[in-house]
Write the structure tokens for this entry.
Amino acid sequence: MVFMRQHLIDPEVCIRCNTCEENCPIEGAIEHNDDNYVVNAALCEYCMNCIAPCPTGAINNWRNVRQPYSLEQQYLWDELPASIEWADTEGTTEALEEEANQILDVAHQGSGVVPAPATAARPQINLWSQGSPAKAIVAGNYRITEAGTESDVRHIILDFGSQSFPVLEGQSLGVIPPGVDDNGKPHAVRLYSISSPRDGERPNYNNLSLTVKRIAYGEHDETKKGLASNYMCDLQKGDEVEITGPFGSTFLMPNDAAAHIVMLCTGTGVAPFRAMTERRRRMGIVGSGKTMLFFGARSASELPYFGPLQKLSGELLDQELVYSRVGAGTKEYVQDRMLKRASDLAELLEDEDSHFFVCGLKGMETGVENSFKQICLEHNMDWDKIRTTLLAEGRYHIETY
Ligand SMILES: Cc1cc2nc3c(=O)[nH]c(=O)nc-3n(C[C@H](O)[C@H](O)[C@H](O)COP(=O)(O)OP(=O)(O)OC[C@H]3O[C@@H](n4cnc5c(N)ncnc54)[C@H](O)[C@@H]3O)c2cc1C
Ligand code: SF4
Ligand code: SF4
């Protein structure tokens, strides 16, 4: 008879993004079919490499079992089976329970799972699922990049009426696109960062905003346009949208007014940073914490929220807007501008009150990290050591997609 803590994926929360499978070092420990992502109990070594990168937390599920659930069983699930208490498990001793918990604790400790900032508020997660979604009403849908440019990015306001959907700056939610896929199954959920602060897009109304880019036909994959992004960008005021979440328990804003917040982003990666900046704007400038934004886009006309950003005072937000496609010879990326602010960033890297957040297109973290490395070299600092400390203290967060 086997007693174990089995590692499982919650099919109701999983958005089938494949990130866990990409990050698992054990071949075959995570696999999927058209229905579900599943963990093979015979292969999983509890290394925890898959936990931090999972954007929804669906992978951080554990069940006490006598016999592990098979792959076949997991593929059939629409939801996780209920948790079994050790006390209910015939033949289980306290010693066995203790042993199983210890294995998991040790694995979690060594996992490199990045904690939330120490002063962040406690988030609520997974209140609404695909089987039981919240139904939000569209209160507004505005284009926030210049008309006629290639990049159609929308500021979409969703009203939750009397349904509870509490969020913190840095969290995201899931959108269920209507209809079914080629196999007659509901479409997989897509995640969108929340771009309004915790008290709502309109303060003290039960609403929030999203910043959605239309993935246009031919832009990335010539054969198909983005399903959820086009659905979202075409929404009209009064339409109903099915929502899951909220998600995210680590990429969160520090509450401490003395915390320095350095935000590095491209495109719609600005969404969580609009939420954090707006939170600080509404609170007033009450602490010594700096708020600094490095924001890259192709041009000013394709930079979401360009107009509103111009209206913010330098005292509230120290902003560096960077363009990669403006005339010949002026191509610049976020990582280039970081080098121009090297001495400010070096000072912040040494300050225990500093928090660094990276959000945007997959791959941007490489450029950002190279610049941090170079800045540290120039200032006699050890980036690898600083990075390890920042991660361990929940002061360095990366969310790319
Ligand atoms: C944690 C998290 C937060 C996110 N936050 C936001 C957000 O705030 N705003 C936002 O707009 N998106 C955000 N996304 C991305 C979003 O979830 C969708 O992946 C995106 O909108 C595309 O979905 P789709 O259904 O339109 O495209 P799909 O139908 O899934 O894909 C259609 C085609 O588009 C391609 N494609 C997918 N994503 C991109 C991309 N980013 N650029 C170019 N081509 C692409 C695919 O490869 C495919 O060929 C986030 C993702 C994650 C994981
Ligand atoms: S814990 Fe490690 S071995 Fe197990 S599924 Fe996750 S990444 Fe793979
Ligand atoms: S949501 Fe999490 S569990 Fe699901 S496929 Fe993505 S990384 Fe894996």
In short: Residues 70 and 234 are 42 Å apart (CA to CA). The chain has a mean pLDDT of 91.
